[in-house]
Amino acid sequence: MTIHILNEQNTILNTFLAELRDKNIQQDPMRFRRNLERIGEITAYELSKELNYAPKVVETPLGEAEVQFIDDHIVVATILRAGLPFHQGFLNYFDHAQNAFVSAYRKNHKDGSFTVKVEYISCGDLEGKTLLLVDPMLATGQSLVLAYEALCQHGGTPAKLHVAAVIGSEQGVDYARTHLPQSTSLWVAAVDEELTSKCYIVPGLGDAGDLAFGEKR
Question: Residue 70: which domain range?
């Protein structure tokens, strides 16, 4: 697996990331969603450098120009519900991409453990395509891997997998490295060291779904 950690460079992404983490700015859900979307856009731009391109001729009012166009058949997939604003950032740039959605959640048990349940999938043909699986938080990595496996069961095997997250834990990154195809590229804005017993990333930013859309019961 190739891992790209975007906050290792000083760019405007770090401003958006800081605002996502800031508990005071988090009081504005619209701002929170927009920052997720903007980090999605920046990640999409960086990821686009690794795609395949082919030349095409574009006719202008004064002549013709040869332009390099993306040659990959892209599918952008996310895990409901927290992934929606992040997903939109990718869709803003890859506006001709197909889309796929997975509903997955943690089912907590009395002993403190949990299992991940996948309940709904909306997915077209993935065979031979480039799959971008995007989810803001890469905590344990279990939901991500199960989502990928469920997508492949329904849509076939993509030619290339790119995984994108806003914040990952070291444990989640290791789990993804072990359980996803070796050729996978992981794009993450920041990697934090600690994962609590309840699988929250520290310092992280809290529950991305609740902050974006309101607390769930």
Answer: 2-213
